[in-house]
Amino acid sequence: MQLTKSRNTQLLSKEEQAQKRCESLNSFAGNLNAADGHNCPICLNRGYIYVVNDGGEIITKNCDKCSAIRKTIQLFKQSGLANFNFESFVTTDEWQKQILDTVISFAVNGGDKWLFIGGQSGAGKTHLCSAAVLDRVRRQQKEASLFAWIDDAKRFKRFLADDEKIESEITALKQVPLLYIDDLFKTCSSSGVTNADINLALEIIDYRYRKNLVTVISSELSIDNIINISEALGGRIKQKAKEYAIHISKGRNKDCRL
Q: What is the predicted pLDDT for the residue at 7?
């Protein structure tokens, strides 16, 4: 039996032997799912697969099925948003159920439309937007990025004029397949929304509007408030979001943090 197996091995070409070796290596499971909760049937949670290159050598390459998903989950995890999902959103009142249904519809059937949730602080806007983004990322295997306005906008505006790294970051935000802008125009400044804020938001949002790139936005402002600040900006958001433009009216009874 051993002699027959040895002869069969010798009959295989170098490339065939390498392919057999790849199959064996690709059968071993990794444990990345323990960190991010995502299970990949292609790389078995290693994050990479073994392949044979043109020279007949065995090399590794990132798993196309899950690399974008894991990168996005890690980004959201660093920002404390990775654990938000639809199942954990509490719906004790009818308005919460209606909003949840609308956001789930966006995640599943929204196509290239945008999602905007504005209004009452503490009503679950960030929870639902994060859940929608992560759900889409898992469904479509596309990378997403996060722009936390209150932190990132301040940093971008301060260094934009003379920092190539910031320019590169803004370009990445403009071009990523799915972008979540959290708390648009939220500021600690007594001067409120400035021209610099408007120009920064318009640079990113106008590009994504023209390139038809899906964008998710939360804000304590309504779309009408944003239109009053900048018609060009608010009009673009309203046109792209359509039925997925949600406004949560003000009311302390809707602030779930209280």
A: 47
